[in-house]
Amino acid sequence: MERIGHLLKWIVMIAVALISLLPIFWMIMGAFRPRQELFQYVSLEWHLFVPVEWTLQNFIDLFGDSTKPLGRFINNTLLVAVSVTLLSLLFNSMAAFAFSKLRFRGRGVVFAVFLSALVIPGEVTMVPTYLLVHAFGWIDSFKALIVPAAVSVFSIFLLVQFFADVPRELLEAGKIDGASWPGIYAKIVLPSMVPALITMGLITFLGQWDAYLWPLIVINDESKQMLQVAIATFTNLQATEWGKILAADTVASVPILILFLFLQKYYVQSIVNSGIKG
């Protein structure tokens, strides 16, 4: 019975994995189909997922379109995503360290008020954030995308849970040895938090890589636009270029897949260490 239970568990896990990966597989295969074949097969058969006529024309059209240079959009998105991720790792980890390990008057109240921002939808704060960005003269600037996203309440809350597991005695030993709080933060706490920081970095990078609404609002200059907004422009009232959209989505998925493949062990380790189940 135990073997049957393990077998059933593996069958369910494989079935869930296949169902999750099927749309991604269809997207990649669709990028290699000619336009007339994309919606030719609608019934559940082999050709629904594997092209009959393979072609690279979608990718040629995608990278050959000088009016919408995909390489520039990728560079713009990469610049913003990397900048936000690095700044977020720095500022959010320092804030989480302060909330979890430093003792100061009103810490609990400040942290509770800070966490209350988690229940406020992003759409509510979007208008005042836009007015601030406009007042600073950052419209059509990468600063409008980087600075507001450099601090995240969710990331601070996530890191506080990990930082709380660092023994207080370890910090006291550092103080006895003459280390300052910045030294303890940099040399004792951060090295033990690598899995948590990588997890937060992955979440932050993915959020910025897939950002659509905020870049659409604050960036009007097409040469500075982000990747997801650029992909959306392939849809218009005259015709939707589905082949180019699937090719662009495939290209946009590659960096995320590469990052996850190289960093997945740290991601899994952070989840295991946090005690999260599911």
Automatic annotation (TrEMBL):
Domain named ABC transmembrane type-1: residues: 74-263
Keywords: Cell membrane, Membrane, Transmembrane, Transmembrane helix, Transport
Subcellular localization, as worded in the UniProt entry: Cell membrane
Pfam families: BPD_transp_1 (PF00528)
Sequence intervals crossing the membrane: 7-29, 78-99, 111-133, 145-164, 184-206, 245-263
UniProt keyword Transmembrane, yes or no: yes
Gene3D superfamilies reported in the protein's UniProt record: MetI-like
Domain of life, source organism: Bacteria
Coiled coil: none
PANTHER family reported for this sequence: ABC TRANSPORTER PERMEASE PROTEIN MG189-RELATED, ABC TRANSPORTER PERMEASE PROTEIN MG189-RELATED-RELATED
Annotated family: Belongs to the binding-protein-dependent transport system permease family.
Protein name: Carbohydrate ABC transporter permease
Species in which this protein is naturally found: Cohnella hongkongensis
Source organism phylogeny: Bacteria, Bacillati, Bacillota, Bacilli, Bacillales
